[in-house]
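Render this sequence as a predicted structure.
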Amino acid sequence: MSPMQDWITTWTSLPNLHPALVHFPIVLLPVAVLCEVAGLTEAGRRRGARGLAVWLWVAAGLTAGLAEWAGEEAADSFADLPARTLAALGNHSDWGHYTWWTLGALAVLRIALAWWARGEAPRPAWPFGVLVLLGLGAVGMTFYTADLGGALVYEHGVGVRAGAATPEPTPAPSPETPPVDDDGPALSRWVEGGHGGGTWTPLPGDADALGSVLRAAPGSSLAGVNATPPEPGAPPGLVLDVDGQALLVLPGEPGDVQVTAELELLGFEGRIGLAHHVRSAREAGLLTVTVPAGGFALVTRRGDDADKRLDDATQALPAGPFRLAVSAAGRHLRGTLDGKLVVHGHEPALPGGACGMLVEGRGRLRILRLEVEPVTH
């Protein structure tokens, strides 16, 4: 949230200002429509119903804008959310944006009608009747948007406990025992989760997974990436030795998705990141981190090796293992570091594709876990 919202919410029990502001347009808009209906009658015009309606339309538009602003700030404060909740949050955010623009446009239209109808000369009533019909449609849109917001609270638990969403049940681990090769070490495998999702928890000796579980995307190669042999007593995870650039993808091609990686940098310098909606090395959505500078950038719709930057920020990386995640739900693209939202951009929804990692630079890094969770609507 912005510093102003943080300061205001210290005086209330609310997690953000959105629930305090959102009720104003919900109430003001229907009252504005009722005043407009009264203004269509002779008695209503004599009693100033149309004049009151102008102020109500303007108030509804302004408070809708404030509610939408507070809602966007609130959405960015809820970072570490389940994939299913991200879809609902993005849908509510989009409809809040549409509602704000609709109410704002109707307020401008009402001011224009007031200017047109000024003076003593009588004016036809049909433009005001059209405004009533448009207002009724806007009431339906507002109530639908409010219902989506209610579902976020009462079905997903967003904002109920200091901004924490109700977690979804974690899928049970695969009952299969990891297979053992001829030399003895256990080999990890990609565990499918349905709808193109799944998890991969690599083991120190699982060099064969590079090229099978984690393979090069079309147009990329494994030439600059090697899996290092495990040392005695090595900690969990697969260590990659990087000298170059590679876009690596996992099995499956989900649509909207949340990709999570647990990583540890071992003297690596360059760029690392998560990829989603990968069609090839030149067409993908990317969330990248520059090391050691810690520059954080969200990019998407890579084409001809050019990255369109939607949002960026500077964020220092922790010294040890960290969790990096990117989600693509509709037009909302969010990047988090250890559960904290760092970047949030918007772009039209991408076509389905693979998910994985981008490595570009020199040094070593350890992959502890990769997870692909489809965002179901």
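Summary. The CA atoms of residues 282 and 306 lie 8 Å apart. Helices lie at 3-9, 18-21, 23-39, 42-46, 49-77, 83-116, 126-154.
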